[in-house]
Amino acid sequence: MPPPILWVSAVTKTYKTGFTALQAIDLAIERGEIFALLGPNGAGKTTLISIICGIVTMTSGQVRVDGHDIGGAYRAARSMIGLVPQEIALDFFTTVWNTVSFSRGLFGKRPNPAYIESLLRDLSLWDKRDSRVIELSGGMKRRVMIAKALSHEPELLFLDEPTAGVDVGLRRDMWALVRRLRDKGVTVILTTHYIDEAEEMADRVGVIDGGRLLLVEKTAKLMRKLGKRRLTLVLQHRMATIPPELAGWPIELEADGQQLVYSFDANAEDTGIPALLRLLGEKGIDFKDLDTSRSSLEDIFVSLVERAA
């Protein structure tokens, strides 16, 4: 098995104030995968990315990018990384073409107009190539940030909250581009609040909270292992409170008492559903409809964070 393109070992970050932003983070990212890092605000996502990209100095630990230590071989490591930060940071008074081409040159890459053209076309920026950045909309500026990050053809791309606050069109284009990059062998690491996107796009998911990496798991396996199903019963008559006979069951009232929701493990041999339905019949609790659905990645994320608190 080839070595991981990114290897993070026992990385910690403690600021002079005494605040510890990261606590002994261990992480290995394989080539060509899409990895989603999930966590609430202040969890340590951006700090970890900033350390890997050489923007923030870690307190202790080690990071290697394709075997290059980010301390001892910073230039070699950084040349392999593309970063799209949350905040827009551009030279507003230069053209789109010039700012992307200049960014490529900063990494020592020879001019390649054909590649820059392809990149701008992929990001729907070709028609704006001669426009000054200051003239662009917020969504277009975000596209320029992505083009700059890809200008030197990195093998590892970081997207820090890439679709936060952008239009639907850009989100669609962004994920299409991510898929194309993965097909070309580029490794993509993203942080996002749009958990549905992580569920759809990511090969693996990492959950971070309070500076600790709570778990790293294949997305599908995580859904199977921790995902529960919900049985929703639409009641014939509104219920003000859950009857005492049902107190021991994992049941909640929703929709202002119109729905009874039962959570169960879909992988268990005995889901408990037949016994529950019999009990409801015995107690005269009638329902007019029922439906089952699985937990989302967001449900799992919330439960993990609450469990770790």
Structure in words:
The chain is an alpha/beta fold. It is built from 10 helices and 14 strands. It has 2 domains: 6-224, Rossmann fold (3-Layer(aba) Sandwich), CATH 3.40.50; 228-295, Alpha-Beta Plaits (2-Layer Sandwich), CATH 3.30.70. The chain has a 6-stranded mixed β-sheet, with helices on both faces. Strands 2-1-4-5 form a 4-stranded antiparallel β-sheet. The protein has a 4-stranded antiparallel β-sheet with strand order 12-13-11-14, with no helix packed on it. Helix 3 (96-106) runs parallel beside helix 5 (138-150). The model has no long low-confidence stretch (mean pLDDT 86).
**Reading side by side through the largest sheet, how are the strands ordered?**
6-7-8-3-9-10
The CATH homologous superfamily of the largest domain is termed P-loop containing nucleotide triphosphate hydrolases
The number of helical segments is 10
Say how many strands there are. 14
Unreliable stretches (pLDDT < 50, length at least 5) are none
Give the CATH class of the largest domain: Alpha Beta
Which radius of gyration do the C-alpha atoms yield?
24 Å
Principal-axis shape equals: elongated
Determine the CATH topology of the largest domain: Rossmann fold
CATH architecture call of the largest domain: 3-Layer(aba) Sandwich
User: What order do the helices and strands follow?
Assistant: EEEHEEHEHHHEHEHEEHEEEHEH
The end-to-end distance, rounded to whole angstroms, is: 36 Å
Assess the beta-strand content as a share of residues: 25-35%
Helix-strand makeup class: alpha/beta
Give the % helix. 25-40%
Rounded mean pLDDT is 86
